[in-house]
């Protein structure tokens, strides 16, 4: 009995410590506190995990079996919270705050308008909609959005548990996006965040089935259709990223894909295992086509293409000359057009460009000049446009950008333009809506128990 009593007491302490930490984080993210931007993320995650803890067995006479089940669940709650805590805590490091906050703001500027369309469409219950994405730095070489098994490996978790914990994290109401550590103090390549938001948009707003059907019916060669369909998720994310940040997304991708010419020239994909991404040369041509299809119609179209789209393709072709996937080139326009013209049911029949109005490239160019000349940036500018301007400035005058960034970092300049206040999906919920969301969070938290009962 002494062993049982000590085990029960230990579990009570472990549970109480976690609940106390939840309360501490809620206080630290209250309005006007340093981390106020993360108020709703913390509030909803902790509410669900508290409901998870409420489901622990409460035995009048503790048993070894009951305590083992409780231990598994308490450990699971600690591990899930550690996943989020480690990312939130990066905001306590002063020299990372500007970069993380600006990346958070870009992700939200891309995600929020789609969320609004989905909310208005009513295909997802309001209380099931997620909060703003949470960005963090990771050792991965490229940005990524958290998936069921993507880069989720908490300490002490076996490979068998990875999927279970990944599924539990995905159920929580905050999309999570990782950035490579070398993005610190280098905004230009961080425009690729918009691509990762595209993956979250496809998943969170129920666009996956429609995207699959879209590619099943592409007017392309039947054999190549299977390749396009294998690549559909990455293509969708590329298209979404360009809708959000324009040529900045294409330029950032080009920088990321820079490689030895021979490797690019010899790269190819063959069926049936086509891979997840189009080969790099083909992917760049597709990205340029997206930008071109977003060009304005009318007499100014050719000038727009000459200014913003064609120079990127010329630079890429000039560097790499040829590739192994030329049979796919004539189909690029149809693939891009299918995604851009699709009326997404989960968004109430809106196209992507209707959900997220594309940036004004001429205005982006003006802002890029202002960044290079270290002029004051306007406070009322759409944040996607400001972020895109940083990437464009870097490509217009790399040495000038680096010099300007060393004087006062561009991230710090953009950070100053982010309005104070809580970053929230629903700023003014009625009391009834708040109660409904709280009830839904408690139900969602209780549902997490199923993941941890699988092996108990």
């Amino acid at each position: 009995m002494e062993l049982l009593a000590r085990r029960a007491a230990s579990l009570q302490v472990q549970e109480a410590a976690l609940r106390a930490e939840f309360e501490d984080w809620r206080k630290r993210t209250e309005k006007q506190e340093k981390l106020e931007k993360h108020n709703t993320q913390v509030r909803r995650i902790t509410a669900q995990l508290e409901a998870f803890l409420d489901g622990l067995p409460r035995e009048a006479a503790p048993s070894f079996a009951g305590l083992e089940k409780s231990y598994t669940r308490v450990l699971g709650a600690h591990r899930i919270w550690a996943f989020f805590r480690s990312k939130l805590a990066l905001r306590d490091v002063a020299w990372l705050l500007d970069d993380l906050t600006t990346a958070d703001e870009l992700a939200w500027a891309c995600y929020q308008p789609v969320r609004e369309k989905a909310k208005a469409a009513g295909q997802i219950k309001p209380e099931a909609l997620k909060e703003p994405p949470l960005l963090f730095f990771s050792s991965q070489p490229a940005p990524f959005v958290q998936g069921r098994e993507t880069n989720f490996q908490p300490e002490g978790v076996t490979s068998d548990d990875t999927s279970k914990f990944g599924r539990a994290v995905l159920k929580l109401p905050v999309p999570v996006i990782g950035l490579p550590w070398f993005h610190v103090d280098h905004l230009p390549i961080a425009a690729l965040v918009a691509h990762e938001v595209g993956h979250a948009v496809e998943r969170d707003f129920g666009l996956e089935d429609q995207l699959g059907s879209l590619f099943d019916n592409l007017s392309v060669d039947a054999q190549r259709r299977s390749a396009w369909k294998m690549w559909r998720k990455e293509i969708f994310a590329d298209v979404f990223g360009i809708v959000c940040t324009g040529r900045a997304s294409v330029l950032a991708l080009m920088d990321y894909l820079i490689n030895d010419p021979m490797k690019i020239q010899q790269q190819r994909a063959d069926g049936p295992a086509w891979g997840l991404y189009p080969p790099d040369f083909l992917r760049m041509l597709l990205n340029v086509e997206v930008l071109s299809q977003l060009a304005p119609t009318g007499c100014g179209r050719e000038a727009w293409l000459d200014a913003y789209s064609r120079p990127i393709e010329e630079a890429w072709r000039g560097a790499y000359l040829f590739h192994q996937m030329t049979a796919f080139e004539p189909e690029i326009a149809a693939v891009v057009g299918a995604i851009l013209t699709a009326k997404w049911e989960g968004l109430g029949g809106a196209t992507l460009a209707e959900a997220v109005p594309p940036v004004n490239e001429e205005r982006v160019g003006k802002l890029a000049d202002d960044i290079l000349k270290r002029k004051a940036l306007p406070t009322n500018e759409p944040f996607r446009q400001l972020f895109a301007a940083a990437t464009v400035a870097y490509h217009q005058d790399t040495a000038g950008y680096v010099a300007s960034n060393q004087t006062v970092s561009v991230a710090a300049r953009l950070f100053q333009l982010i309005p104070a206040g809580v970053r929230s999906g629903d700023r003014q919920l009625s009391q009834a809506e708040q109660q409904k969301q709280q009830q839904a969070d408690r139900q969602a938290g209780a549902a997490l128990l199923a993941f941890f009962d699988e092996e108990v």
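The chain has a mean pLDDT of 91. The beta strands are 134-138, 144-145, 176-180.
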